[in-house]
């Protein structure tokens, strides 16, 4: 090959030289304030990373399949199981559906029993025709998990299937149950004794999981990524401690634990979360005295988050679940479930389930994301995120341990208060559009109208028991406040007509167009009938037009310089007929307020609270 001298004329640039150049281009703006991102996860993200940022990261010298598994559990691929959950109301019908979806690309089934007990004959009917040594079989929400495990072994033995070929698990999630209900079904002692019994019953099934760590509960309650990971690690350590105290070894318990995480829209963060989680968990298990590194692998099932899904403009949920699926599989996991785009508000349809399946199959069979081990490796940004998330999750884990472990920390209210503080911060960011929900708090579908939505769709899921001994976690969706706002307008409009909001563009062409577009999107979030205009030549023309249209709210859209004279004229002409609103935050705002103008909307407005106030003013 010829000697390539392409770069010989370019001297390498130091990080400081890059920063100096950027600072110069910022023209006096502060580098940190302008470009450094402070995350909800508790650490800063720099605007760029370089090779030198990798020098102090010991995990960079490991390979896929090697301890501490930051680069994945597998040495030569990134394969995962595509899972679909099936609600079991009738075992025959559930079996037929399972056989159908297994022919459509699924290789993992989750039977959701909703606390039903299955006899051995019912279980045999449910599994009829399914090759148990080829398909992962999971059971969710089962009362009789121990009996179910025994019956599964018996059925497999009768069919001549080697027990080490059975993959899947039952989800005994004592700590998530306590966290949502606020107490144990019977007692703490009996609950953990039952888990021990289940682990012992599954000894003959080396690839079958028993204990579940429900990290998705934290995610869907509004936690940060660090909180989801840190509290999940603490819950996993609690299971290890309780079972070891009960007489089992770490080698017996750790391989029976499965972590269930939810994946949000924070694309790169979610990739790093799974990598960081495996690394920290491997070191935790090793510290418990694992006899070999294989025991230290974290088994992960992922699912798309419920927290960021919306009822209005629901097809946008497909975009969310697609990027979530991609980040999850790039981060490396064992199985994944894409929840159908309409699952937040309806019983999933054949269409929505098909789309959900195919979203994963697209990534696996057409994008080939299962072929390359640790596809995110070497990205300076992702490697740095991995380290930052691991460090912060470890700090949170140690804080929980100092409080006596997950259960004691939860009883004391630490877990709830930590997540609640983050959730409230995120709610404010949604209300002020610092966190966007396309189609809900930003760029809504103007013509979309829904009937009255059930209360369960618009309220947090509160499963607190009457005998709860502490506050519980209540999963909710971040869009619920905006959805409640808009649905209130939809209901009002059925008998009262939809309140009209008219734009009043006048003066400077560029400013009036930009502000009219902003204001249209602003008021459409509340479900108002929004109408724009090409522009008025005079105040008189505009007032006549919006009055004839019966506008309840009129938004003046112009330049700051022109507001000082235009807005008072519009306000006086419409006084008593419509609410006059100014789009922007002009320097003359105080002068306008002195003349009676009280309503201003701009990019710093609390959109939710502002729209609630307009609803109240209009009697909605």
Describe the structure.
Its EC number is 5.4.99.2. The chain has 620 residues and is an alpha/beta fold. Among the domains are: 15-53, no CATH class; 217-442 and 453-478, Methylmalonyl-CoA mutase (TIM Barrel); 498-618, Cobalamin-binding domain (Rossmann fold). Helices cover 45% and strands 11% of the residues. It has 23 helices and 15 strands. The strands form three sheets. It has an eight-stranded parallel barrel with strand order 3-4-5-6-7-8-9-10, surrounded by seven helices. A five-stranded parallel beta sheet has the order 12-11-13-14-15, sandwiched between helices. Strands 1-2 form a two-stranded antiparallel sheet. Helix 21 links the parallel strand 13 and strand 14. Helix 3 (91-102) packs parallel to helix 4, helix 9 packs parallel to helix 11 and helix 20 (539-548) packs across helix 21 (560-574). The radius of gyration is 28 Å and the shape is globular. The mean pLDDT is 96.
Overall 3D form: globular
Give the percentage of residues in beta strands.
Answer: 5-15%
Rg (C-alpha, Å): 28 Å
Structural class estimated from helices and strands = alpha/beta
CATH superfamily of the domain at 217-442 and 453-478: Methylmalonyl-CoA mutase
CATH class of the domain at 217-442 and 453-478: Alpha Beta
CATH topology label of the domain at 217-442 and 453-478: TIM Barrel
What does the largest sheet look like? 8 strands, parallel, barrel
Low-confidence stretches: none
Q: How many helical elements?
A: 23
What gap, in angstroms, lies between the N and C termini?
75 Å
**Overall helicity:** 40-55%
Named at the architecture level, the CATH assignment of the domain at 217-442 and 453-478 is Alpha-Beta Barrel
Number of strands: 15
User: Order of strands across the biggest sheet?
Assistant: 3-4-5-6-7-8-9-10
Mean pLDDT: 96
Keywords: Cobalamin, Cobalt, Isomerase
Enzyme class: isomerase
EC number: 5.4.99.2
Domain Methylmalonyl-CoA mutase alpha/beta chain catalytic: 121-445
């Amino acid at each position: 090959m010829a000697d390539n001298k392409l770069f010989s004329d370019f001297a390498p640039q130091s990080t400081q030289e890059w920063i100096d150049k950027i600072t110069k281009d910022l023209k006096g703006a502060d580098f940190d304030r302008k470009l450094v991102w402070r995350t909800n996860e508790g650490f800063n993200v720099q605007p760029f990373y370089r090779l030198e940022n990798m020098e102090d990261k010991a995990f960079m010298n490991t390979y896929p399949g090697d301890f501490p598994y930051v680069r994945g559990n597998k040495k030569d691929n990134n394969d995962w199981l595509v899972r679909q959950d099936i609600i079991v109301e009738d075992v025959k019908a559930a079996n037929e559906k399972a056989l159908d979806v297994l022919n459509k690309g699924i290789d993992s089934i989750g039977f959701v029993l909703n606390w039903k007990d299955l006899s051995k004959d019912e279980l045999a009917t449910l599994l009829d025709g399914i090759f148990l040594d080829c398909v992962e079989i999971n059971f969710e929400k089962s009362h009789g998990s121990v009996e179910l495990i025994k019956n599964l072994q018996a059925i497999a033995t009768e069919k001549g299937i080697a027990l080490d070929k059975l993959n899947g698990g039952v989800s005994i999630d004592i700590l998530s149950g306590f966290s949502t209900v606020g107490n144990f079904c019977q007692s703490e002692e009996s609950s953990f004794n039952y888990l021990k019994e289940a682990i012992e019953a599954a000894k003959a099934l080396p690839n079958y999981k028993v204990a579940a760590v429900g990290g998705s509960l934290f995610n869907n309650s509004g936690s940060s990524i660090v909180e989801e990971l840190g509290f999940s690690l603490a819950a996993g350590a609690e299971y290890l401690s309780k079972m070891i105290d009960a007489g089992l070894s770490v080698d017996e318990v750790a391989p029976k634990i499965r972590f269930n995480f939810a994946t949000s829209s924070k694309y790169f963060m979610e990739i790093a979360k799974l990598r960081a989680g495996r690394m920290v968990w491997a070191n935790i298990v090793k510290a418990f005295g694992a006899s070999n590194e294989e025991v230290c692998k974290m088994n992960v099932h992922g699912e798309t988050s419920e927290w960021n899904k919306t009822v209005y403009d629901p097809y946008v949920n497909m975009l969310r679940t697609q990027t979530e699926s991609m980040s999850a599989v790039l981060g490396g996991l064992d199985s994944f479930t894409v929840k159908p785009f309409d699952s937040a508000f309806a019983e999933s349809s054949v269409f929505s389930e098909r789309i959900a399946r195919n979203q994963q199959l697209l990534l696996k069979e057409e994008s080939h994301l299962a072929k390359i081990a640790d596809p995110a490796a070497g990205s300076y940004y992702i490697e740095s995120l991995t380290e930052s998330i691991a460090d912060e999750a470890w700090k949170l884990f140690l804080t929980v341990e100092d409080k006596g472990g997950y259960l004691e920390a939860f009883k004391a209210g630490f877990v709830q208060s930590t997540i609640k503080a983050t959730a409230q911060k995120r709610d404010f960011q949604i209300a002020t559009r610092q966190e966007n929900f396309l189609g809900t708090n930003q760029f809504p579908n103007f013509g979309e109208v829904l009937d009255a939505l059930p209360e369960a769709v618009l309220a947090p899921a509160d499963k607190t028991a009457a005998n709860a001994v502490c506050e519980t976690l209540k999963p909710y969706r971040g869009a619920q406040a905006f959805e409640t706002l808009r649905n209130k307008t939809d209901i009002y409009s059925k008998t009262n007509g939809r309140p009209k909001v008219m734009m009043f563009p006048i003066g400077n062409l560029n400013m009036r167009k930009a502000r009219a577009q902003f204001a249209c999107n602003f008021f459409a979030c509340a479900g108002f009938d929004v109408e724009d205009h090409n522009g008025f030549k005079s105040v008189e023309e505009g007032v006549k037009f919006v009055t004839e249209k019966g506008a309840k709210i009129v938004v003046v859209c112009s330049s700051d310089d022109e507001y000082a004279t235009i807005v008072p004229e519009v306000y006086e002409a419409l006084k008593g007929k419509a609410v006059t609103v100014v789009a922007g935050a002009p320097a003359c705002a105080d002068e306008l307020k002195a003349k009676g103008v009280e309503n201003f909307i701009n990019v710093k407005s609390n959109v939710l609270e502002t729209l609630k106030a307009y609803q109240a003013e209009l009697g909605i």
